[in-house]
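Task card 7
Instruction: Convert sequence to structure tokens.
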Amino acid sequence: MSNGLEDLVVSGKELDKELVAEVLSPYLRLDKDACSIRPLGPWNELNAKEKILLYLIARKAMVALGFDLGEEGATPNEVIHDTGLKKGTVHPVLRDLLTDRMVDQSKDKRYSVPNYAIERIKNVLSHE
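Output:
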């Protein structure tokens, strides 16, 4: 018999794969052979913040799918290289996202999206 408290317990490590697919599918595909993202048409309508968030969620999905990525987190240089965004854009956006708690930063300066932020990011992307 549950006392209700157990219903509140979630694992921060548990990834909602359906939510991730729902967030990513309008904007990109994941290329397993090249271990990279393949932007779709709507990607071009996004601002830098949205592209960076989607890129970081895509890395999370790639790790969950067993891609040979190494790790989920990305350095600013990886974000710049893989998204085509400019250095002068990426660094301030990452700092803002960190302040807004939409991304985390590891000790080795890699950025990633915490699982709890994915629903919030979905709302940002739908401009709610």
